[in-house]
Write a structure and sequence with these properties.
The protein is an alpha+beta fold and 179 residues long. 38% of the residues lie in helices and 12% in strands. The radius of gyration is 20 Å and the shape is globular.
């Protein structure tokens, strides 16, 4: 009976996946040649919604305020560790850069706002940082390049007790070590 149930579960998964319209996989943010011609990244700071590939960036890009690598803070919704779609392109650029520079490592600092218990906020900050780490490791960054740490509510960037302050404190910061 148990074998029959396992067979049924496997068969259900296979049929479900077969019914999905899965096309060829491509990297998030990847554009066609025509889209790339129409939508170029500008060094003057007026960037579009796409970034140059991280493997095309040099280490000096880490200190360039016009580089997509300068965007190192990702914000989260209340009680959520779900990475926003808008932040996935930023994570992809950092992941491609790290994958092409295996000698460089980062620290992902998870943070939360002041609401909730201290223990809950430490766990939530860690969960947020691990969500970013998972996306990066799926894109070729090695585990030993990423350290995850959570400060919970202990290091707020905004000291207010309102929604605008809380929005700024629910974040993951990408910190390059040694740069």
């Amino acid at each position: 009976m148990i074998k029959l149930m396992r067979y049924f579960v496997v068969l259900t998964v296979i049929v479900t996946l077969a019914g999905c319209n899965l096309g060829p996989l491509k990297k998030r943010g990847q554009k066609t040649d025509t889209q790339l011609e129409d939508n170029q990244y500008s060094k003057s700071g007026d960037s579009t919604d796409t970034f140059p590939a991280g493997d095309k960036l040099e280490v000096s890009s880490l200190n360039d305020p016009n580089s997509p690598l300068s965007q190192r803070v990702l914000y989260f919704e209340l009680d959520s560790s779900q990475v926003k779609d808008a932040d996935r392109d930023i994570i992809t650029v950092h992941a491609e850069f790290l994958a092409s520079h295996p000698e460089i490592s980062i620290v992902l600092e998870g943070h939360a706002d002041e609401r909730g218990s201290r223990e809950y906020n430490i766990a939530l900050g860690e969960k947020r940082a691990k969500a970013v780490k998972q996306i990066m490791t799926l894109q070729g960054v090695t585990d030993n390049q990423i350290q995850v740490i959570s400060f919970g509510e202990e290091r707020p960037v905004a000291s207010g007790h309102d929604e605008s302050a809380w929005n700024l404190n629910r974040r993951v910061e990408i910190l390059y070590t040694g740069y």
